[in-house]
Amino acid sequence: MQPKIEVGILGATGMVGQQFVKFLQNHPWFEVKWLGASDRSAGKKYRDATEWRLGGETPEFVADLTVEDCKPGNAPRLLFSAMDASVAGEIEQAFARAGHVVVSNARNHRMDPDVPLLVPEINPDHLRIIPTQQRNRGWKGQIVTNPNCSTVVLTLGLAPFRPFGITRVIATTLQAVSGAGYPGVPSWDINANIIPFISGEEEKMQTESLKILGRLEGDRFAPLPAKVSAHCNRVPVVDGHTVTVSVELAAKPSEADLRAAIESFAGVPQERKLPSAPARPIIYMNLPNRPQPRKDVERERGMAVFIGRLRPCPVLDFKFVALGHNTVRGAAGAAVLNAELMVSEGMLD
Amino acid sequence: MQPKIEVGILGATGMVGQQFVKFLQNHPWFEVKWLGASDRSAGKKYRDATEWRLGGETPEFVADLTVEDCKPGNAPRLLFSAMDASVAGEIEQAFARAGHVVVSNARNHRMDPDVPLLVPEINPDHLRIIPTQQRNRGWKGQIVTNPNCSTVVLTLGLAPFRPFGITRVIATTLQAVSGAGYPGVPSWDINANIIPFISGEEEKMQTESLKILGRLEGDRFAPLPAKVSAHCNRVPVVDGHTVTVSVELAAKPSEADLRAAIESFAGVPQERKLPSAPARPIIYMNLPNRPQPRKDVERERGMAVFIGRLRPCPVLDFKFVALGHNTVRGAAGAAVLNAELMVSEGMLD
Amino acid sequence: MQPKIEVGILGATGMVGQQFVKFLQNHPWFEVKWLGASDRSAGKKYRDATEWRLGGETPEFVADLTVEDCKPGNAPRLLFSAMDASVAGEIEQAFARAGHVVVSNARNHRMDPDVPLLVPEINPDHLRIIPTQQRNRGWKGQIVTNPNCSTVVLTLGLAPFRPFGITRVIATTLQAVSGAGYPGVPSWDINANIIPFISGEEEKMQTESLKILGRLEGDRFAPLPAKVSAHCNRVPVVDGHTVTVSVELAAKPSEADLRAAIESFAGVPQERKLPSAPARPIIYMNLPNRPQPRKDVERERGMAVFIGRLRPCPVLDFKFVALGHNTVRGAAGAAVLNAELMVSEGMLD
Amino acid sequence: MQPKIEVGILGATGMVGQQFVKFLQNHPWFEVKWLGASDRSAGKKYRDATEWRLGGETPEFVADLTVEDCKPGNAPRLLFSAMDASVAGEIEQAFARAGHVVVSNARNHRMDPDVPLLVPEINPDHLRIIPTQQRNRGWKGQIVTNPNCSTVVLTLGLAPFRPFGITRVIATTLQAVSGAGYPGVPSWDINANIIPFISGEEEKMQTESLKILGRLEGDRFAPLPAKVSAHCNRVPVVDGHTVTVSVELAAKPSEADLRAAIESFAGVPQERKLPSAPARPIIYMNLPNRPQPRKDVERERGMAVFIGRLRPCPVLDFKFVALGHNTVRGAAGAAVLNAELMVSEGMLD
């Protein structure tokens, strides 16, 4: 049994940081040894610096760690970034410059032309951009990102259909409140209500998804030559983003073709049995009114995307509904799976 | 001041029936004089036959009326039907056969080739099918219907765009629980959850909307030659169906063209100042995150449809969000406005 | 017809300020002419300074008023204070010192020994402390307060029982999210959840209620010699605080005595037909499962308190449930009714 | 390793039955071999007879079992009853008469003078009534019951205080919708609302709790000589009943005495390490605003009761808040723990 790899969390006291702590508890490869946060928290024990907002109380395995400033120094080589976008950009670069491997959930560098925007089941080869990134920037370290929480649900839902030539996609999201962080959406605004707007979200879905589903050609990313249109809505759901999708496919497959593609879909994380990889990344539910966020989102530790109601679309070719856990598969779990892929590639050796 | 027209309500004790009672309170033209319900309720006072489920207590103006069997006899000529689809079909026909004017919210006859499916701002001329209906069926009475609650929001939202040639529409609904009637959706299923399926709803939206937006050519309806694709979802909202819409328009108008079309849209109910007609049937909201069901749906007595976020769609031409009150503009209020239109046409003389 | 009395709102851009604006729309006696807010907003038009969070859009009657600094100067004599407690204390005093009549919803001065904590149906005579207040403080102006939003529901619910000698009260609240202001409670915390704690609320209910139900003896308040114990909870409800109450009564009345006391309860606002006074301040609902916040709280413009389920308590004497609108009867409407009472007393002449 | 004890479930297809199935999955002692339901379901496979309403899909370990009529015959000796009260009474008796050990969640026999109403940490000795029950009724089998879901939270919350002499209790519940079964509470009624009434619930809490906390004296139960008053409310929460409690204690202990009593509280299930027993049946949470149903109720597999905010009560002696999982500790898990206690007593030998 190998010693575990020491890891740190940038932005550990916030909501996303707490999600990382929870997800990394008992991780077989990674051991949380370092917690970074703002000046205000630095120097305190994690249990004192943090108002724990998830279930139960602050987990014991980190409760007595002292929170550090988010500055390179004594941090482990591998760092997960749970920082808010308002500060993540420069801090992540500082750590990468100092030689750290930064696996980030922040949006700042996702669309950079030399930064992988990774969904390990879809585009693991995008990691091959890293030498270019290091050369461009003169870094020993690196930054790897995962997509926006609604984008990961959409792209995993579409991934099995790639062989049939995705050309046009219209998606409407019904996004949980946990996607807005903390304090996030005021209950006055969302209780028994719908907010038909999430700032910047539609743009992210429309651009990030094409990068993810696109190809790495030499040292540049060629986005998928398709059109994506997103309608984003906040709904009074705790966890789990639901997405309704209509899709046009160049090869005009049958419904049976698509069902077979979903059933057989798997990726590198499944082949390599990465610790956080679900046995099957996409699970089709046959029940007529599923998947549903409250009832299904916690299955498979929140790491699978659930698909249901695949049927012909009178306007494009097919339509379906997809569901994924926004703070797990769409945030902390996504980043951890990215890091596991990188370990399996020998990038942390 | 003319005497009021006496009206009755078929299915008066149920949830939709209660909505009719509430909406008809203090109506300037109509006076509720007759309440029909199932055998179980017949013979009781309305206050005793009804478990009042709306705000406050059973309205006094009907509380002491005796509930009657749903059989022709002493009912007024003009009847609103709030009956459940499981029984509405035959009972409405029996009343029409007996000479009554049945203005129905039930789905049973909506798609009959000789029954108007009416949205007074869109297709008031569809009433001209009535002589054909009466001839076909040998009736002195008649049946007129209003659309399904999500369809009316979609069609009113699209109505201003008709001059630009609507060819393809993809719509996703976020529908309130009141749309499912009573007891409707169990709270166990919908609390903090999404149900991505409503039985029969997508089919209704995909067919009813084309009939409504289509033309009456002689004695037959020619549906709009367009394609509509619907994704229907139940959400934990009390009242108000939100619909996200992407639309393709043959004439390729500018966004300014569409905004102008929305601003200037009005119909016969507005011209004639029908009592339940909103001053403007479609209201565009400029706030970036509106309309919202809980905050906007009660405006204009629930009779307007609110539009927001009109913007280009990367896949079709434009996209926007629409909101309407499902139990008012999508049910009781719709039927009452239909009856007001019919009165203004002299059809109740 | 008399000219209207000009009024201003301190803290007009916040959530409570918006509630004042909404409640004062079309008020027969008062006309909003002045809106004060923080430096950040001063100089802007109200429509630009305010993110309107209630239904519809910013009301036209105030939208073009220019927001002023919260400093005495050109403000009308009568001011409603909707300020946050963090700043209300000193600003209200500055205005009172400058001769203004400050009718405040803030908590800062409620328990001051020379400030009335007014519920016009219960203790209108407490206004007689004002000369003492002015003498003590050397003011020409004055400060009058209304209670905390849960306290007003409890005290109005108990008011009819005062003749029977209230000695002990145990109350549990189920408080709506609007009671926490804006942004208030994060949706992450309250969606499908209960928070069994509201900072400072139990203390307020336990002390404010005894001052309100107590007597003004000469120039000092004698609190009711009773014990009140409160358990305060936040619940996922939009508007309306529900309170379950067990009460001990010295005179050991019968249930019929109490029902009669509720039915006949009225106060000075009803006698004088003040514009915001409900016809009956306390309405008993006979339905077995009412009152309910979502269904009943908007009745009577939110100014009545609803009582239900009066029954014997095995531990104290009787128990019942009470409901009131926390942002109307518990905030803006309470203050406006206070001002109306003061006008009717000639205090604004 | 011993062979597992075969068990059956009466009422297996309903909501409570599904909770039993879920809770018994992978149980170390019990193996579900028999599923009984109404005539309508009998003869079908469980997966076909059941509309699975919990997370995921119908568990595989029971999906292919054939559902049987609820009649004695081939059922195992040990049966869990998840039947609705409308039918449970007679069917349970028929099975007990036929020699079965019926461990029931139904309310029908709870208050029978010869039936134990068991909370294993509180009154395990009440099982000693069984010979009397069998003698009275001429049965070889027996019926053992667990309390109503809100009663179990109240009684476990009070249990540590028994040594101090509980004399008076006032409790207000905030009960989750899952407590009402399925379809249970219509979402129209409870969405963003409070229903301040649950039929029969207050009576159950006021009587069941005294039986549970009372003593078995010879062959009769002597209820605790105390007074309990309950206010029961339904709230829009999925799982978990919250109860606010004020309690009078004859011995006038200090707060520290009570905290110590809570910390040291354990019972027979903990001593014997019964498989479903939580390590500690009552967990005190120090965070100021906990326990909260959505965040805490799933901890300890739903088998612990969480206490918070212990503080002096101005009217009685102390007050606190308690939380428990109504469908686990208050239903399926309670019955399974009862059966484990019975096995550990040798009653299934």
Nutshell version of this structure?
Helix content of chain A is 29%, strand content 23%.
SSE blueprint and pairings:
Four copies of one chain form a homotetramer.
Chain A: E1 5-10, H1 15-24, E2 30-37, H2 46-49, H3 60-63, E3 67-69, E4 78-81, H4 85-97, E5 101-104, H5 130-137, E6 142-145, H6 149-158, E7 166-175, H7 187-190, H8 201-213, E8 215-217, E9 220-222, E10 227-234, E11 241-249, H9 255-264, H10 268-271, E12 282-285, H11 293-296, E13 305-312, E14 318-324, H12 328-344
Parallel strand pairs in A: 1-2, 1-4, 2-3, 4-5, 5-6, 7-10, 12-13
Antiparallel strand pairs in A: 7-11, 8-9, 11-14, 13-14
Helix pairs in contact in A: 1-12, 6-8
Task: Describe the protein in words.
The structure is a homotetramer. With about 350 residues, chain A is an alpha/beta fold. Chain A folds into two domains: about 5-150 and about 330-345, 3-Layer(aba) Sandwich (Rossmann fold), CATH 3.40.50; about 150-325, Dihydrodipicolinate Reductase, domain 2. In chain A, about 30% of the residues lie in helices and about 25% in strands. Chain A has twelve helices and 14 strands. The first copy, chain A, has helices at about 15-25, 45-50, 60-65, 85-95, 130-135, 150-160, 185-190, 200-215, 255-265, 270, 295, 330-345; strands spanning about 5-10, 30-35, 65-70, 80, 100-105, 140-145, 165-175, 215, 220, 225-235, 240-250, 280-285, 305-310, 320-325. In chain A, strands 3-2-1-4-5-6 form a six-stranded parallel beta sheet, sandwiched between helices. In chain A, helix 6 packs across helix 8. Chain A is globular, with a radius of gyration of 19 Å. The two termini of chain A are about 15 Å apart. The model of chain A has no long low-confidence stretch (mean pLDDT about 95). Chains in contact: A-B, A-C, A-D, B-C, B-D, C-D. At the A-B interface, strand 7, strand 10, strand 11 and helix 11 of A face strand 7, strand 10, strand 11 and helix 11 of B.
